[in-house]
Amino acid sequence: MRKAGMAARTNLMPGLLLQALMLGFLALYLWSDDTRGLLGGIARFKQEVGYPFAFVSYLIAAALLPELLRIAFFQHGRFTRANLWNFLTVAPFWGCMGMIVDGFYRLQLAWFGGGSDLRTVLLKMAVDQLLFSPFFAAPLVIGYLHWRDSRFRIESLRGIVTLEFFFGRVFPLIVAGWCIWIPGVSLVYFMPSPLQIPVAVLIQVFWVLIITTLAERSVNVPDDTTVQPLT
Length: 231
Known about the structure:
Layout: H1 2-10, H2 12-31, H3 33-49, H4 51-74, H5 81-112, H6 118-149, H7 163-190, H8 193-214
Helix pairs in contact: 1-7, 2-3, 2-7, 2-8, 4-5, 4-8, 5-6, 6-7, 7-8
C-alpha cells in the first residue's frame, strides 16, 4: 500500500497536467469544426485499416516515442545498442496490446452501445478501470517488461505469478494509472467508436511526453531498461 501511495503522489502533478490537456482537447472537439473534420478523417482511415491501425499507433506511441525522447533528452542525442534492444523487444508487444485494446473497445461497444450519455460512459469506464486494466492489462504489461528486463530468462517467469509481485509491482501501477486513465478513458468513451483508439493513442502520447520529461530519475536509467507509459 505504501508503494501505491507513493505512485499516486508521484503521478499527481503529471496527471493534473495531462487532464488539463485532455479538457483542452475536448473543448476543441466540441467547438472547433476544423478539429472535428480532422478527427473525422482519422476515424474513416481507422475504419478502413482496422486492427493494423491500432498495432502501428501503439507501437509508435508506446515503443518508438519513449526511446526517441530518451535519446534526445537523456543521452544527448547519442544512439546506443541498448536503444535498439529496448525498441525491438517492446515494439511487437505494444503493437499487440494496441490490437487487444481495440478489440476490448469493440466488445464494450457491443455490450453497452455507442452512446455518449453519462450512464454509458460510466459503465464502460468502470469495466475498463476496475476489471480489464487491473486484472488483465496491467499484469500483462508489467509481467512482460519484467521478463524482458531479465533478458527473457524462463526462470524469471515464476516470480510474476505471485501475490508479492502483484502488490509490489502491479498494484502501484494500477493506482498511478487511475490518476490518469479514469478521466482518460472517460474521454475515450465519450468519443464515437471509430475515434476511441486514436484518442487513446493521443492520451498515451501526452502521457509519454510528460512522464519522460518530468521524471528526473530517468536520467540515470540503466541501459537495459526503458521508460514506459502507463496503460
